Amino acid sequence: MTDIKELKLTVGEILDRLCIELRKAYYFGEAGTKVQECLESLRLFWRKRGVLTAEEFTEYSKSMLELANRNADIWANEWGIRAGKDYPFEKLGRMAVLTRKLNDDRSKAKQEIDILLNEKPEKKGYGYGEYEVIPE
C-alpha cells in the first residue's frame, strides 16, 4: 500500500480524494485501489498521530462532514451542467459560479482539518466566499 509520505498529501487532501473516489464507486462501480490507498494512508497517519481530544474530534468531525457535503454539492451542481440540460446561458453561468463558491468552502474545510492536525494546509481559494443555493 502507499505510504502517506509517498503521497505527499495532507489528511485534508486524502479525505477529499476519498470523498470523490467513494462517490465514483457508488455511482459508477469504480471502487478500487484509490479508495484502498486513501484508507491505508489514513490508517498510517492515525497510527503515528494517536487519538484526538474530545474537542479536537468534534472540530475534525465538523470539518470532515463539511468537506463531504461540499463535494456532494459540487458533484450535483456539475452533474447538472454536464447533463446537457437546456438551461439558459445565465443559469449555466450562475451554476459555474456556484461551483467556485462551493470549492472555496471545500478548500476551507480541508484547511481546517490540516490546521487541527498540525499539517501544512493547502492555501487555495477560488475567490467567491460564501455560496447560495440557486433554485432550478
Write up what this structure looks like.
By secondary structure, this protein is mostly helical. It has helices at residues 4-7, 11-28, 33-49, 54-82, 89-116. Helix 2 packs antiparallel against helix 3 (33-49), helix 2 packs across helix 4 (54-82) and helix 4 (54-82) packs antiparallel against helix 5 (89-116). It is globular. The relative contact order is 0.16. Residues 1-5 and 131-136 have low confidence and may be disordered.
Provide a brief overview of the structure.
The protein has five helices and no strands.
Describe the SSE topology.
Elements: H1 4-7, H2 11-28, H3 33-49, H4 54-82, H5 89-116
Kindly state the mean pLDDT as a whole number? 82
Count the strands? Answer: 0
Spatial separation of the terminal alpha carbons: 44 Å
Radius of gyration over C-alpha positions, nearest whole angstrom: 16 Å
How many helices? The count is 5
Oligomer: single chain
Hey, roughly how much beta strand do the residues contain? under 5%
Low-confidence stretches: 1-5, 131-136
Shape: globular
- Secondary-structure element sequence? HHHHH
Largest sheet: none
Helix proportion of residues, in percent? over 70%
Which key features would you list for this structure?
disordered C terminus; 136 residues; globular; disordered N terminus; mainly alpha
